[in-house]
Amino acid sequence: MRHWQAAISLMALLPAAPIHAQLVGDMSPDRVREALAWGLRAPEAELDQYELRTDRSWLVNFDTPFLRVAQLSRAMKIQNSPASEADVSPKVAGPEVHVYAHARMDTGGRPLPNIDYVVILHPRTGAASETILPTSVQSFVRRVPTDADFTGSTRIARSVKAIFPLRALAAGNTVRLTFEGGAAQTFPITPELLAHVR
After folding, report:
1. CA separation for the pair 80, 26 (Å, rounded)
2. Most exposed of 39, 116, 135, 193 (fewest Cβ within 10 Å)?
């Protein structure tokens, strides 16, 4: 199942504007209408979550309010029930970025990591970085294929969905993943990464 389809199927149970180096405000009614229309015509691959970082045995991706509204629009179109502005709840269009951290298949045979937590660090001149904590964290287990064809066995690894205020998705900030056992990885949010995000 593609990432956006999984996200839409969970949206009822779980809790765009262009994003560049600067912060993005709430979705206006015009932006909601634009996202609904884009969801009807966008290539399917453009409705997947945006990639933040992919490593050998883990990956981090995210979605934005604009993308979530577009995903909702596509999902309702598939069900022959076109979406309208009335179908867009604050949970879908709220000023939040949803960050998903997962284990992924590693052809090198390394153990799959269990991911414990995600934070975003905002640099401050002459001081320690500000830690932007998620407003919500959900830990869940998913099955990860152990072969490239996705037809063989799977292994289980713990993933995390973390919700941050939209201001956290800014160039110059750093994402920090903490794994079971205390190991951590950090990586930057770059302007290039955000250049095509809606």
Report:
1. 28
2. 135
Please give the model's pTM, rounded to 2 decimal places.
Answer: 0.82
- Tell me the sheet residues that pair with 187: 175
User: Which pLDDT band, with edges at 50, 70 and 90, does 120 fall under?
Assistant: very high
Spell out where 27-70 has E strands. 50-54, 58-63
Give the ranges where 86-190 is alpha helix by DSSP (H): 90-93
**Distance (Å, whole) CA 138 – CA 69:** 21
Q: Are 87 and 68 in contact (CB under 8 A)?
A: no
Contact 122, 129 (CB under 8 A): yes
Count CB atoms within 10 A of the CB of residue 39.
24
Predicted confidence band at 149 (pLDDT cuts at 50, 70, 90)? low
Least Cα distance to 136 among 100, 88, 110 occurs for 100
The rounded distance, in Å, linking the Cα atoms of 92 and 98 is: 10
pLDDT in the model for residue 6: 43
Give the residue numbers spanning the domain of 20. Answer: 3-194
Looking at the 3D structure of the chain, how many domains does it have?
1
DSSP state, 181?
T
